[in-house]
Design brief:
Length: 834
């Protein structure tokens, strides 16, 4: 049978009779393609498949399917040759005219096709090829939308992320390759799980985490409330519930939501939000665990069958166990990104984080103090202390006149003796074997220095040493420390413990009337006639100590809070002979010592000493107005104006008498007094001459090194405790206001970055000096009712760049510090720029 003629043309040479595999031109260079080739009756479509790695070098654009079909896709690189004008050849970098441009649209892409072909084209159906893609990313998007913990704006960010990811794939890949990539992504992410099953499990897990974490925080709150009310048993129960709930939530989060964490980690916004919530949850668990140790320690501290020192030891051990939990909680809280939280929770969270950080530091300090507490309460052996009770109505440098004192003997936390001499400090007068000359202002009272006036130094350790010396010279007994307690502490504690009754005198002492009632009783003719004016204090002391010892659990925390406040505000000050204990007390700010300052810090403390002014300080209101003027050469001139207003009336007896005050201004050591004014001296005839046979006090000579006496005003200039002091008199009558002023130059100039040997103007002119810093430290006098205000004035062309401290504000040429009560030590800082 005759064969049919071969009509198929070779795709290489366009000749009939053979195909391209037998073309004689196969191993030679292909003929150039004509720019306008002649049309053929049966044209074929030619494609270049580029850069197949294993193809012969002589024909890099030919692919032999017989040899390469097994790995054709693995070895193809999409690199196109130059575009050719012949329409019979198609290059994959070119698009046909019926393909829509791949521009991004504002219309959400989920639910519509990636490429929208011409609707009239029959070769491609819209939306068909990408249904799988839509389901994958649409399902993930819906999964995140279903999470209750993620705020609406975060869900919106998720949608935008997947929307942009969708667009990116649409722009880069044709649909077949895109489908392949999406399938691979789906296999990697979801292959270990069935998608629908995991979605349901994830929703259940999210619900469990939400409910358990909420229950955990509610239980933690309930435990805290119980603890504050002294309900240790209730706090223990609820804290157990909190730990269980947090543990369950964390277990669910870590074991059942790993795929969730893997997915959200790919999205930074979502990852931060979820991670922050995880950190808060972990912090909650650590706080609950730490609180459980604290509760157990407090529970052991209530065991009356053991000694106080044993209970303190148990409490300390539990605190030390809690510290790692609190530290880990603080670490987790610090890792939370606040901007991932709902707006209404950001500030409360920031406040809680700051408070918890401070609490964590306090608890660390308390554990460090535990050894010292053992020593203080006689855990290391017998201890004896002087307790001096100061009355701020008659101001003295450490808080007030010492109207009474007690001797406390303690061993293993148990009080062995608590004695309050009914005659007060005057009971020691006849026993004092040492005759020393008092500080000159105290000669207005008596010709020798005695126990009741020993708190002359504003540095409490120095005054405590002097009190211990006078007591030893009177009773031939040493003590292990001194604790000074201001009268207003009694009022604070009575507000917690409740009133006390003195049935013998028919009196009831409460937080509102205790000081006035005791003062009236002590000053009454009946009490003075017995020569035991302080007997009421002696009689009420056992009752007061009993109320403290047997305080109900619900009042324990308020009691500790008031004690801590009194220590911070210097209404309670302590000094101990044991150097390690004394160092720790100072570190806590409970030692009453004058604050050490740096050489370039401004410092201010006003000390009032009432001498022969009765109890008139109870009616005095004092305002300290400070101004620092910084000159162009960097020097600083301070002006301090002290305004004292007597609000008493003459008919008020001891409260309505004239106020006689020896006032001292403590400033940076080496400060130069420029001017002082406004002083009033007592009558010279009122002063005593030193007693016969008295000697100079060596401690006084060391503490007060006299520098000069101002000839114009009689202002005494001394160097004391690393500071310079200016001292003079001010007398204020009832209903009157008095004012004194000190102007002085600080001993340092504003620090410069390029050396202090050049003038400040040199730096300004050359542009080398652009900023300076200034800092003011204001120290409170214990027991003084005073307020403070200040302004710091800069040189021309300088303005505040940064400032910090209470009630400080920027001004046109400096900063102002608003008038505020000086109830504790304060510090203000400012940085100025040219």
């Amino acid at each position: 049978m005759r064969k049919r003629p071969q009509v198929r043309a070779c795709t290489i040479c366009n000749q009939v009779g053979h195909n391209r595999s037998r073309c004689p031109k196969q191993n030679s260079e292909p003929a150039p393609i004509a720019t306008n080739p002649a049309p053929v009756s049966n044209p074929v479509l030619h494609f270049f498949v580029h850069h197949v790695n294993h193809s012969p070098a002589s024909s890099p654009h030919i692919l032999d399917l017989a040899e390469s079909k097994q790995n054709i896709f693995a070895n193809i690189q999409s690199v196109a040759p130059s575009a050719h004008a012949n329409s019979a050849f198609h290059f994959h970098h070119n698009q046909t005219t019926n393909v829509a441009p791949t521009t991004l649209s504002k219309t959400p892409l989920i639910g519509r096709p990636l490429y929208q072909k011409n609707p009239t084209s029959k070769s491609i159906k819209p939306k068909r090829e990408f249904l799988f893609f839509q389901k994958i990313f649409g399902g993930i998007n819906n999964f995140f939308t279903a999470l209750a913990e993620i705020p609406a704006r975060v869900r919106s960010a998720v949608e935008n992320f997947f929307d942009n990811l969708y667009r990116y794939f649409a722009q880069v890949f044709p649909w077949k390759k895109l489908a392949f990539a999406v399938t691979a992504l789906a296999v990697i992410l979801i292959a270990p799980f069935q998608a629908n099953s995991y979605y349901r499990q994830a929703r259940i897990a999210v619900g469990d985490i939400s409910s358990n974490s909420t229950a955990g925080f509610m239980a933690l709150q309930a435990s805290t409330v119980s603890l504050m009310h002294g309900d240790i048993s209730g706090a223990d129960t609820t804290i157990g519930n909190a730990v269980d709930k947090f543990a369950s939530a964390i277990d669910t989060m870590q074991n059942q939501s790993k795929i969730l964490q893997s997915i959200v980690a790919l999205v930074p916004i979502i990852g931060d939000a979820v991670t922050s919530r995880q950190k808060i949850l972990l912090a909650g668990q650590e706080i609950a665990l730490g609180n459980s140790y604290l509760i157990h320690g407090l529970s052991a501290a209530q065991n009356a069958s053991t000694t106080l020192t044993a209970r303190l030891s148990s409490l300390s051990a539990n605190l030390q166990s809690a510290i790692p939990n609190y530290a880990e909680a603080s670490k987790n809280l610090n890792a939370v990104k606040t901007d991932t939280l709902p707006a209404s929770y950001r500030q409360p969270f920031e406040d809680f984080r700051a408070i918890f950080s401070a609490l964590n530091n306090d608890l660390r300090n308390l554990t460090d103090l535990s050894d010292s507490l053992q020593d203080i309460f006689g855990g290391e052996g017998f201890r004896r202390y002087l307790l001096v009770f100061q009355n701020p109505a008659e101001l003295r440098p450490t808080g007030g006149f010492i109207g009474s004192f007690a001797v406390l003997d303690i061993r293993d936390g148990a009080i062995e003796k608590f004695e309050i001499p009914p005659g007060g400090p005057y009971a020691l007068q006849g026993q004092l074997s040492e005759n020393v000359e008092p500080p000159t202002p105290l000669l207005l009272l008596r010709p020798r220095w005695e126990f009741q006036d020993a708190n002359w130094f504003p540095d409490f350790p120095a005054s405590a040493e002097k009190l211990m010396r006078f007591y030893r010279k009177s009773r031939a007994v040493t003590v292990d420390g001194v604790i000074a307690i201001n009268a207003n502490v009694l009022e604070k504690l009575l507000a917690v413990t409740g009133p006390m009754s003195d049935t013998a005198r028919g009196l009831t002492l409460s937080a509102d009337n205790a000081i006035a009632t005791i003062q009236q009783t002590v000053e009454s003719p009946e009490a003075r006639a017995t020569k035991k004016p302080k007997q009421i204090i002696t009689d009420l002391a056992p009752q007061f100590l009993g109320s403290i010892k047997n305080i109900p659990p619900a009042k324990l925390l308020p009691l500790l809070t008031e004690l801590q406040k009194s220590l911070t505000e210097k209404d309670i000050q302590a000094y101990f002979v044991n150097s390690d204990t004394e160092t720790k007390i100072k570190n806590f700010g409970w030692g009453g010592n004058i604050l050490p300052t740096n050489a370039n810090q401004d410092y201010l403390m006003v000390i009032n000493t009432n001498i022969q002014g009765q109890k008139s300080d109870a009616r005095i209101k004092q305002i300290i107005s400070h101004e620092a003027m910084i000159d162009a050469d960097g020097s600083i001139v301070d002006t301090v104006i002290i305004t004292r207003t007597h609000t008493g009336n003459t008919w008020e007896g001891m409260y309505g008498t004239h106020n006689v005050d020896y006032i001292r201004l403590y400033v940076p050591e080496g400060s130069e007094l420029i001017e002082a004014s406004g002083f009033t001296w007592p009558d010279d005839a009122s002063f005593h001459s030193p007693a016969v046979g008295v000697t100079k006090d060596s401690d006084l000579a060391v503490a007060e090194a006299e520098v000069a006496i101002d000839n114009r005003t009689g202002t005494r200039v001394t160097n004391e405790f690393g500071k310079t002091a200016f001292g003079n008199w001010i007398i204020t009558e009832p209903g009157q206001t008095t004012q004194v002023q000190f102007i002085y130059r600080l001993p340092f100039k504003i620090s410069t970055a390029n050396g202090a040997d050049k003038k400040w103007t040199d730096f300004v002119l050359t542009g080398a000096q652009k900023s300076f810093s200034y800092q003011l430290v204001a120290e409170r006098q214990s027991g003084c009712d005073s307020s403070i205000e200040s302004q710091i004035i800069f040189p021309d062309d300088f303005s505040p760049d940064w400032y910090g401290g209470s009630e400080i504000k920027s001004a046109a040429n400096g900063v102002t510090i608003a008038n505020q009560p000086l109830v504790k030590n304060q510090i203000w800082s400012v940085v100025a720029k040219n």
